[in-house]
Amino acid sequence: MTEIGQATARRSTRWRRRPLVLVVALMLATALVAAPGNGVAAADTSQRYIDEVFADVTVTSDVLYGQAVNHGALVDLRLDVYEPTGDVATERPLFVWIHGGSFTGGDKAGALDVAVATRMARQGYVAVSVGYRLGTSTNFEAIMNAYTDASDAVAWLRANAEQWRIDTSRVVASGASAGGITALNLAYMPNRAAGEGLPDDPRHVSAAVSLAGSTVPNIIEAGEPPSYLAHGTADTVVPFSSAVNTCAAADAVGVECVLDVYEGATHGSLFLFGNDILDDASVWLYDRLALEAMTSLSGRVTTDGGDPVAGVVVRAVPPGQPGLLRSTVTDEEGRYRIDGLTPGPQAVQFDTGSWFACLGATGSCGRGQYTEVIVAGADEVADVDAVVGGGTAGGLAGTVIDDLGAPVVDVAVWAIGAGFSSVHVASTSAEGTYTLSGLPEGSYAVAVLHDDGWACHGPGGCGAALFLPVGDTTTAGVDVVVPAAP
Questions:
Q1: Residues 192/199, Cβ–Cβ less than 8 Å
Q2: Cα–Cα distance measured from residue 209 to residue 230, given in angstroms and rounded to the nearest whole number
Q3: Per-residue model confidence as pLDDT tens digits over 157-202
Q4: Backbone phi, then psi, for 260, in 5-degree steps?
Q5: Which residues contact 210 (CB under 8 A, 6 or more apart)?
């Protein structure tokens, strides 16, 4: 619902009119890039997505996202991508910034635009500054060209989300002046009643942030994204009343629209308070995008000799909520990270396909077992490591037959380490034979499990489990006899 915030005394004073918006932009740029965080800040003092927790930003400039005709010629459309340097998150929210300039000027690499994108990347977003076609005058064609190009940029970024590690469910359209107008148009111009702008639409955005912008009130429909507007009461370029009307129209159809009012601010002088605006917008986005759910855990899988294990599937799921399962695979260094977790307890498993490794910190392991880890909102739980057998490896082999002497085909045979140190599984062949290989040195019980719940152990029949030593060779003749089918 509409929240028209009254400016604080700080915002209603300290006004100094500037003859050129460029001067204001340069002042803002200086303020925005000052005093970045030192690396990933401590969790007790800084919060990712709200504070600048990364010291450095990696910029990929002039990325081609499309082409379009402008002034009778085919032109390339390009954008700049800003990423937090050293970030290992596999999914990051996307902050799309659209520059201002009355739809006739400005540039994606302007001082203000670089400063905003840099700041948001330092906060942990993938920030993108979009270039778009400029007109010769501020007319309908120029406005629609900007909207079309920005829409295409969003669609291109969503299509290439894996490359840039973007969470496509959290896309913010943002901008200043003409860019703020375009950001709001991205949120509200698609015809939702016709099925446009829905989450599966490549142009879909999750929220809009506008500095000194507004949109046509009658295009806002129920169910569309929320928006945050910062506007000066003395703005005569994009009149303050147009921002009020935008939020009033949103309110009328039940769409959230927050209007942060800066008393006495003109169109240009509003940007002197860019840091205040981004501070407030960041807190608002943290809530509206549910960024507290961007909890993550990370760790490393190694052998007991300390060597990395690649290709291990790591799963995390809140107990009893299989629909919230998240998974990833360890890299060549044995490292992994899972993002987008629900705050609270997470059941963590490590799976290579034939066996499960469990957390070395607990010593418990086994198929169906897990270690519970508590994760908190937007905090990374690191060092959730697992140790799997390495070094000396042997095996067990044999045949599974029934008590009539017939081979038992395609049945699972398990090797269970003492204390559930590791669990391995193989299937019997057409001749009833099996081989359990790659077993770390230790003692193992061999078991054949039946759907009815009985377990038979080898060597022998359905008696008590017998643990067999495994070294660096394969022990053959570990046969199992099971009851014949009725």
A1: no
A2: 8
A3: 999 999 999 999 999 999 999 999 999 999 999 877 777 878 888 9
A4: -95, 110
A5: 174, 175, 176, 180, 181, 183, 184, 227, 228, 229, 230, 243
Write the CA distances from 52 to 40, 77, 171, integer angstroms.
8, 30, 19
- DSSP secondary structure code for residue 463 in this structure: S
DSSP characters for 85-137? TT---S-EEEEEEE--STTTS--TTSHHHHHHHHHHHHTT-EEEEEP----SS
Residue type, 182: T
Q: Tokens representing 231?
A: 């506007």
CA distance 196 to 219: 13
**Residues near 5 by Cβ (< 8 Å), separated by ≥ 6?**
258, 259, 260, 261
pTM beyond cutoff 0.85 = no
d(CA 81, CA 145): 21
Q: pLDDT at residue 364 above 80? A: no
Per-residue pLDDT reduced to its tens digit, 19-72 = 223 323 333 333 343 333 322 322 334 788 999 989 999 999 999 999 999 999
Q: Across the strands, what pairs with 5? A: 260
Q: pLDDT band at 453, cuts 50/70/90?
A: low
What does the pLDDT look like over 116-144, one tens digit per residue?
A: 999 999 999 999 999 999 999 999 999 99
Instruction: Provide the residue count of the chain.
Output: 486
Q: Which amino acid is at 329?
A: V
Mean pLDDT of the chain: 81
Q: All domains of the chain, ordered by start, with CATH?
A: 3-292 (3.40.50.1820), 294-388 (2.60.40.1120), 393-482 (2.60.40.1120)
Instruction: Label residue 322 left, alpha or beta by phi (over 0 means left) and psi (-120 to 50 means alpha).
Output: alpha
pLDDT for res 378: 58
Say how far apart CA 352 and CA 422 lie, in whole Å.
12
Whether the Cβ atoms of residue 238 and residue 212 lie closer than 8 Å to each other: yes
Supply the pLDDT for residue 61: 98
Count of CB atoms situated within 10 Å of the CB of 408: 22
Q: 3-state class of 167 per DSSP?
A: strand
Q: Answer for the pair 445, 466: CB distance below 8 angstroms, yes or no.
A: yes
pLDDT digits (tens, 9 = 90+) for 328-343: 899 999 999 887 777 7
DSSP H helices in 253-365: 274-288
